Amino acid sequence: MPINPGYTKFLERHADQLRQKCEVGPFERLDPFRLASEMKMDVRFVGKESGLPVDLLESVLGACGGSWDAGTIKLPDGRIHVYMNPNRDPLRQRATLMEEVSHIHLGHSPTELFRCGEVVFRTCNKSNEDQAYWVGAAALLPLRILKGARTRRMTMVELATLHEVSIDLVKFRCQINGIDLGGPVPVR
Fold this sequence. Notes:
Number of helices: 8
Strand order of the largest sheet: 1-3-2
Distance between the termini: 10 Å
Shape: globular
Largest sheet: 3 strands, mixed
Strand content: 5-15%
Structural class: alpha+beta
Number of domains: 1
């Protein structure tokens, strides 16, 4: 299920812009934490040292811990804080941070509130969420890397390991770009 070529160009253009912010070579692994730092985003893992009151911390990591990956707050003075769920797998954290970075890069505004127990979370609309994920995934695995992996006959596992992303992210990028790395690509 390859996507519209115009949208692919849009994704790759924004992915390249993000990669250029930390001067990553065309085939090098992108470090989302370094990119966030280059973009002056303060990334924090929610925990005792994050300064949250103990009852809020228990709610965010306990009862609500499975319902969120990260949240970004843009303060009135322009500072940007990203709060990450420390209980997520490190590969998921990398993809999640890229999504948060992409929201800022694309200028998305938060639009929805939802409640989990006593905690209120804010999200972006579905279209913005998808767009940010797709741009973030493209920054982690640009089309040229997928094509290079195909030429080198790399497996999805090898590519995922080399770029520190999940196999699901590799499958997703291969699927939307019509790239076959020699394994089944499930419909997402």
